[in-house]
Specification:
It is a single chain. The chain is of the alpha/beta class. Helix content is 24%, strand content 28%. The chain is elongated, with a radius of gyration of 21 Å. The two termini are 14 Å apart. The relative contact order is 0.18. Bound molecules: NADP nicotinamide-adenine-dinucleotide phosphate (NAP). NADP nicotinamide-adenine-dinucleotide phosphate (NAP) is lined by residues 47, 115, 147-153, 155, 172-173, 177, 179, 199, 235-237, 282.
Length: 305
């Protein structure tokens, strides 16, 4: 029987692991399919306190893992498929094994949202992606576009200017939602061309099935047009990763886990931390903070039971 299983290895998961390992709970961390979470798909992180020169997202996550392991956190590279509540503990089933735990912290984060166009699934990896860091370098000296108007879209667009001949920033409104500094930086970049008040209505492919163009509709005038792009980088927000819970915990209307007392869900002994329970702040540092809170809540819960 484990004291504590932490599901997820983003900022929330690793911070929960650091705190609970230092409290001698010997947590077991189940890593899932994306070790290190969303920060592993980003480049420079400029706003994590303590790094005035910035730090690369993957480096930050490796350092968090190292810190958690140093204090005795154990890690299994397995994907959780089900969590079951028993009267006084939990069963956590992965593709390989079933673990028993007195407490569980859910820190599974959120995954990129897509537009919901028909040939989306087939195009992923063929000119459709949500990760500029992962795929940007494949699109040298060709035009690409980013969809969205938030910080992610601006960050991705800026990064892509290193490779692409032109980066179109396609946004459904006439102004960006991004923070002032990131919006200004993106709009001042001569390689970024904003396409305002527009949305993509179709992905058009070449004979090889690779992305060739997007069909656009101007949401103000209704006018349709086509734009040649070899890759579409979608940056329109995220969907919380809760499907494996199969209705076990209460969620809000957008599918984010509801926390009831501190970080505890509606089920005693089951806690949530990071983006899986946060649709408001969604920052590396707030995820880390809630991971810390969940570890403290789990520790107190264990002490009281
Ligand atoms: P976001 O702020 O929620 O922005 C999503 C963008 O996508 C919005 O501009 C939205 O349009 C657009 N959108 C949503 N659904 C759409 C659809 N179906 N079709 C077309 N456009 C759609 O998400 P985010 O940019 O991923 O940022 C999430 C959080 O992470 C934020 O708190 C952000 O500050 C943070 N973040 C920070 C950094 C940084 O500081 N370095 C970097 C990345 C992200 P509307 O504007 O019309 O709603």
């Amino acid at each position: 029987m484990e004291n504590l299983i932490i599901i997820g290895t983003g900022c929330a998961g690793w911070t929960a692991a650091i705190y609970s390992a230092r409290a001698n709970l010997a947590p077991l961390v189940l890593a899932g399919s994306q070790l290190g979470g969303q920060l592993t798909t980003t480049t420079e992180v400029e706003n994590f306190p303590g790094f005035p020169e910035g730090i690369q997202g993957p480096d930050l996550m490796m350092r968090m893992q190292e810190q958690a392991e140093k204090f005795g956190a154990r890690i299994a590279y397995e994907e959780v498929v089900e969590v079951t509540r028993l009267p006084d503990h939990f069963l956590v089933r992965t593709g390989e094994k079933t673990y028993e735990a007195q407490t569980v912290i859910l820190a599974t984060g959120a995954s990129p949202r897509h537009l919901g166009l028909p040939n989306e699934r087939e195009l992923i990896g063929h000119g459709l992606t949500s990760c500029a860091t992962c795929d940007g370098a494949f699109y040298r000296d060709v035009p690409v576009c980013v969809v969205g108007g938030g910080d992610s879209a601006c960050e991705e667009a800026g990064f892509l200017t290193r490779f692409a001949s032109r980066v179109y920033l396609i946004h459904r409104r006439g102004e960006l939602r991004a923070s002032k500094i990131m919006a200004e930086r993106a709009l001042a970049n001569p390689k970024i061309t904003p396409v305002w008040n527009s949305h993509i209505t179709a992905y058009l492919t070449d004979e090889q099935g690779e992305m060739a163009k997007v069909r656009l509709q101007n949401l103000v005038t209704g006018a349709e047009s086509e734009l040649e792009v070899r890759c579409v980088f979608v940056a329109i927000g995220h969907v919380p990763n809760t499907r494996f819970l199969n209705g076990l915990v209460e969620l809000d209307e957008n599918g984010y886990i509801l926390q009831q007392r501190g970080t505890m869900t509606n089920i005693p002994g089951l806690f949530a931390a990071g983006d899986v329970a946060d649709h408001i702040y969604r920052q590396a540092v707030t995820a880390a903070g809630s991971g810390c809170a969940a570890a403290l809540d789990a520790e107190r819960y264990l002490a009281g039971h």
